Amino acid sequence: EQLKGAVTFEHVSFRYPGMSSYVLKDISFHVRPGETVAILGSTGAGKSSILQLIPRLYDPTEGAVYVDGMNLKDIKMDDLRKRIGFTPQESILFSGTVEENLAWGKSDASLSEMKAAAKDAQIHETITDLKDGYETKLGQKGINLSGGQKQRLSVARALIRKPNILILDDSTSALDLQTESKVLDAIDEYKCTLFIVTQKLSTAKRADKIMLIDDGKIIEEGTHDQLMNTSALYREIAYS
Ligand code: DUT
Questions:
Q1: How far apart are CA 114 and CA 153, in angstroms?
Q2: Closest residue (by CA) to atom 11 of ligand 1?
Q3: Structure ipTM
Q4: Using a CB cutoff of 8 Å and minimum separation of 24, what contacts does 16-24 make?
């Protein structure tokens, strides 16, 4: 409960275990509690690699990551897991009911907590339209959801724990602009620090900070208005 959600990267370099080349090179930034950070960059630039370090899926090879001034390594894994919501690029759903999928990682979640999160993620109505509502089975023995529905279910799962830090790794890419904007409006109410990988200008515009990543480095940083003024590269992305 104590985490506020400030995130600091200090000279972070990273290579995947067993690999010789670095995928992140001397990354430093500071994000204040409650800020929204949009991460942009081409495929393979290192966006997911940066974000994976926050819930400690990996640790930096060099440098350190701090949350609220504490080195991640000094925070209990359990506390981290409770306070960080992370939706990976590929939604991970398993064969089980909608309810079981939502409660994954937080088995004490109540149905009303699940519904509230599902409403915020704009998936509640889809769920209630299913044959058995929240009890509907997904996967091989049940129904298949569309890409965008899976993404919203993963976002709902992350919101259930009311995270201080929410990481959406391209997890709204399949949503139309209007739905995405409703999801992000709802997330605003959680007052969490938000990292969102996106290709959408509308999402970048909302951010307090945009980080443009290329070849494992932050090459531009600022708000939409700032980058429109200062960055030819950002303008190119904006107008494309
Ligand atoms: N990489 C690995 N092992 C992994 C994951 C990635 O070696 O388990 C490499 C691939 C790439 C670099 O790390 O050269 C950065 O990948 P990352 O997935 O971080 O890039 P991205 O910006 O998130 O790309 P995308 O938009 O395609 O997800």
A1: 10
A2: 44
A3: 0.96
A4: 16/49, 16/58, 17/58, 22/61, 22/216, 23/49, 23/216, 24/49, 24/50, 24/60, 24/216, 24/217
Q: Whose CA is nearest to atom 6 of ligand 1?
A: 49
CA distance 145 to 174: 12
Q: Is 135 helix (H, G, I), strand (E, B) or coil?
A: helix
Distance from the first to the final alpha carbon of the chain = 42
Q: Provide the 3-class DSSP secondary structure of residue 235.
A: helix
177-195 residue pLDDT tens: 999 999 999 999 999 999 9
- CA pair distance 37, 239, nearest whole angstrom: 20
Residues 6+ apart with CB under 8 A from 96: 137, 138, 139
The structural architecture, per CATH, of the domain 7-239 is 3-Layer(aba) Sandwich (3.40)
User: Tokens 């409660």 — which residue?
Assistant: 103
Dihedral over Cα of 215, 221, 227, 229: its sign: negative
Nearest alpha-carbon partner for 183 in 84, 87, 82? 87
Rounded CA-CA distance 220/212 in Å is: 5
Ligand 1 lined by 89 (C-beta under 6 Å): yes
Per-residue pLDDT reduced to its tens digit, 196-208: 999 999 999 999 9
Residues 6+ apart with CB under 8 A from 36: 193, 194, 196, 206, 207, 208, 209
Ligand 1 contact via 147 beta carbon (within 6 Å): no
